[in-house]
Amino acid sequence: MDDRLLLIAFGAAVGVCSGLAAVALSHGLVFMMENLSVFRDYWWAFVLPGIGMAASSLFLEKVVREGAGHGVPEVVYSVSRHGGLLRLRSSFSRLISNCLTIGAGGSAGPEAPVIISGASIGSNISRLFSLNERQRVTLVGCGSAGALSAIFNAPVAGMVFTIEIIMGEWSAANVVPIAVASVAGAQVTRLLQTHQISFTHLRFDVDVISTLAAVGLAVLTALISVLFARSLRYSHHISEKITLPVWVRALIGGCMVGAIGLILPGVLGEGYNSIQQMVEGAFVPGLALMLLLVGAKIVATALTLGWGGSGGIFAPALVIGSFAGLMYHRFIVLLLPGLSWVDEGCYALLGMAGVISGTMHAPLTGIFLIVDITGRYETILPLILVSALSTTISRVFEPASFYLRELVEKGQYLKPRTDAKVLADLSITELVEKDCKTVPRNMLLGDFIKVVQDSHRNHFPVVDEQTGEFQGMIHLDDIRPYLLDSLMYETVFLEQVMQTEVETVDIHEDLSEVLDRMDANGLFSMPVVSSNRFVGMISKATLLDKYRHELMVQTMH
Amino acid sequence: MEMQMLHIFRNTPLGRETLLESAYFCKHLDILPVVYVPGYVKFLMYFENDVVQVDLDGSYLRSPETARDHVVEIVESMGLPAPKFLEPKHFTASTLPDIPVDYDFMCCPRSITDMSSKIGLGYIGPRVRRIVQNARFPVYIPSAVFKPWQSLAVMFGGSANALRALKLGMRLSRISGFPLDVFTQEGRRKRKDYEDIIDSEGLGVEMDKYVRSWRFFETRSFAENLYEIPHDALIVLGAYGHGLIKELFFGSTMETLQTVSPNSMLIVGPNYRASI
Q1: Chain A contact for B102, CB < 8 A?
Q2: Cβ neighbours for A172, distance < 8 A, ≥ 6 positions apart
Q3: Integer Cα distance of B198 and A146 in angstroms
Q4: Is A237 touching B (CB cutoff 8 A)?
Q5: What CATH number matches the domain at A420-554, 3.40.190.10, 3.10.580.10, 2.40.128.490, 3.40.50.11190?
Q6: Is the CB of residue A127 less than 8 Å away from at least one CB of chain B?
Q7: What is the ipTM of this complex?
């Protein structure tokens, strides 16, 4: 079967499975929320999010032993570093833990869990059918797209998010199967789903003034995005410093979220109801209360995700964005009451796009998500403006998106078809030149010259004859002063002329680090030494050959 | 190039025995032990087509302050230079390190993920199976108590993995100088069939050169015949790739072997690239 057709067929299957995972999660959330809603009015209801988060944490740590984060960074890492390999348990673990977290009132979204579930489904289907690495990466993308498409009923956003964040590149070979998976996921959700955000009945007439005013909203949402991303990280760092079991931390964090929820119930859960009210213009609270809600939602989400709950930032970003948009609209109306403004619901949508774009550095995702969930293009001009500017401004303060920041800091994010990616896919073992003749340190210069005559190399590793340990290197330049003096042939030993301060390479070292050291020291080759034994040489010439070959393999499709 | 063996150290008496086994193996085969002292109870091994999560039991994290000293002491007591310690460079999550898989050998207890009480005879854990199935290296499964082995015993059943095991046995015999015996349980195939397999693989000369004896078990069951394998032999065998149903109902040959025999074993999986 043709490779592209095969991937399309598999992509559709993965999209359907991911869609089913998303539907299962949605039904689980509805079930949890409905059954716990009867307890919400009690004074002790603030412990519910704590109990849910503790249960979620215990489930992840003790039952499925996941030991990993919220989802999206793990998928990106897997695609970037390990050809899309994901554990089978990841296909269901986050769905259950997320149900427990959000169902009990934790402030988080269901997107990241469903994305890793879909991605894991794609990865394991490709393993089951023994597909190659490139095909596996594509199916991981299909799973991610199908899942996001299904949970939001937003096929274009699912596709665009996957390509912007998960895959990190647009390639013809990937886009078609991912698009098919996205359609399949959305179709599944349309057939089976009842719980989704959709505002297709809304219509906004956006004029020039409203479009221009969106610039201010872009600045506001960018700053809020930065604050949101930093709060999430800060909360996680604080939580890590507390020497209590993870589930106890989750319990404490959840109770704090619950306490906030007693005063401001709007911050609990995924928050789609608030969004719906805001977009429809039915959200009553005033400007000050909305400012408070923005802060409270950020704190509640940081506590939920930083202290052990399971979920994503997509839904909280939407809620925060809509609060911000609405707040901004009311502010400019207050400031310039004489002008005619578009309905405030439009600015709530723009705010959502702004915070999504600013937090994730994914402007297209922000734009298409709003277009998808409204089903209309009237807001497209301010949408583009807000998303693009919010991304650009937030980049000034945050160099990488929230999902990639930690990976980038640890040097673990490798963008496809880049130098780092090519180097990461090569190992020292592949590059070692083993045809090097070692010479003993007590060899006479005369004997060494005979060795040189039979060799085509300029560098010779010197080893201890008794122990075999690496002692240093000798280069032809080192013996040049003695070459014309035959008396030296019988009097000079190699240990007298060899270089002992030699930069060596470990067999398990990262190639990019080795190359950096070569550049810093102006070297063209280096000896590879393992536990004081000479293994071989690594040279830039061999590296270039292998690099070109690897580059051709990676860019073939 | 110098060969390396990965060993996951457990700072307990049982861990001492397994490290002694590894050190003995390394000493006789000129291998550098690379020791990982776990800092977390989980780690991942990313193979070419699978990712295996190993969940260690809590005893692997015991007394971290003395673990490295114990490792050095045990390895040096075997006359080896100080081992190399593995420090994970990459993490899938902050408490989930990725362990490299480009070693020449790996030492796994019979079950790497369960409590010590299960690490007797009769149980090879599912993680160890998956490692064997995916790894390019052979997996060394030591006996529960350190016992220096004095010969090599290859279980040869004629399969592709068995041929790999035979080549590995020859290679180890060549490097270590220990005698090599081959054992074959006759079934549907007879002695002539096995000899034909060896000839078709062009291993006739090597068989004469490295193999001390080739014993065929013609009667009695495989489990009964295992008594004939020397008590001080390192058993080298290929992973037997039975289907799930057959393995569920009858157990694998590997399972039978390690249930009955207390010897240390070296298991060769389908991805091992054999050379003599």
Answers
A1: yes
A2: none
A3: 52
A4: no
A5: 3.10.580.10
A6: yes
A7: 0.81
